[in-house]
Amino acid sequence: MTLDTLIIGGGISGLSSAFRLAREGMKVAVLERDVLGMEASWAGGGILSPLLPWNYAAPINQLCHHSAQLYPQWIDEIRTHSDTNPEYWPCGMQVLLPFDDPNLLRWTSATDEATYPGFSISLTDTGSLWLPNIAQVRNPRLISALREALTTLGVTVLEHSGTTRLIFSPNSTAIQHVESVHGNHQAGAYLVCGGAWSQQMLADAPPTKTITPVRGQMLLFRTTTDTLKHIIYYKGTYLIPRRDGHLLVGSTLEYVGFDKSTTEEAKNKLMEQAFFLLPALRSATLEKHWSGLRPGSPDNIPTIARHPHTSNLYIDAGHFRYGVTMAATSSQIIADLISHRTPGLDVAPYAWG
Ligand SMILES: Cc1cc2nc3c(=O)[nH]c(=O)nc-3n(C[C@H](O)[C@H](O)[C@H](O)COP(=O)(O)OP(=O)(O)OC[C@H]3O[C@@H](n4cnc5c(N)ncnc54)[C@H](O)[C@@H]3O)c2cc1C
Questions:
Q1: What's the pTM?
Q2: Are 291 and 304 part of one and the same domain?
Q3: 73 in any annotated domain
Q4: Atom 12 in ligand 1: which residue has the minimum CA distance?
Q5: Which of 71, 116, 127, 330 is the most buried (most CB within 10 A)?
């Protein structure tokens, strides 16, 4: 079988592009070093928004907002090929005082229905902010749904198949093939979706915006189902209730390289914040504590692009804190670029360099 696109890395970035391309009738394969979706894409919280949009530059808000708007339709498309429900839930988010007033004022005065359709923000009686349209998804379930959809669509998924090298043509105008632990793979296009590991994969053609691992630790509590009905954000900590009574508390931002261990210090700090925000959690069961490595990029801006000189090499990586949020639109941009269509939004900020 001649492959149209070979995707390297099976997190949310790789799987969402595989889904788009396969739906367009392309022959696609995904090479995953371990098991699909068990790195950052599993570890994340699944909030579909920048935490505080007013603290981010326009390229982040543009991509996140566009993608968040696409999500309901995208989830429906995935569900036509899968029985797993990713539990998309527009539960809203409450931001507690204090928040960054100058940024917020600047942002709200420059933002209206025309800039970000469907986005709304209001002040509550207690002085907190209410963002009713912020949604969440259960990312491990979204990964499962995508995996099933890819199987239905005939995508080849090769797990435990780490890529070891990209082999360039003598003048580097094209990738000739990719070496993995199981042999060589050839395709028309090669898409790097290696998350925090993308920089290593692209050692011979690095993106200008360097991608580095940024560790985030999370806690998972089991509560009664009516403990909390929306996301709460307070001074860098967030609580995300799931519909079945699970509740996530996140997260840390740690620059410790590829170290995925968890620490007592982070656990205690997250618990302290969580108990302060929601005293009922004191009697809840702490079920899990884990960490994941975000693909960190300067200013949180991902690289979603074709290589400037190597015509069949693409990247969709470096989404840092918002790769789940951005997935619906990032994958659409990638499908457009690979199919030589002009993407529907300005992609200059996400260029290779
Ligand atoms: C604690 C935490 C909380 C988060 N919360 C949110 C949130 O609420 N909302 C949000 O939008 N985002 C959130 N994120 C960010 C989001 O999870 C990431 O941006 C996103 O998952 C990145 O997806 P990815 O597919 O690019 O990377 P990954 O999920 O890391 O996938 C990369 C894949 O590449 C594979 N790979 C690596 N090397 C090789 C190789 N040599 N060959 C083949 N495969 C390879 C890996 O095994 C992995 O499966 C959070 C992240 C963390 C850690």
A1: 0.97
A2: no
A3: no
A4: 322
A5: 330
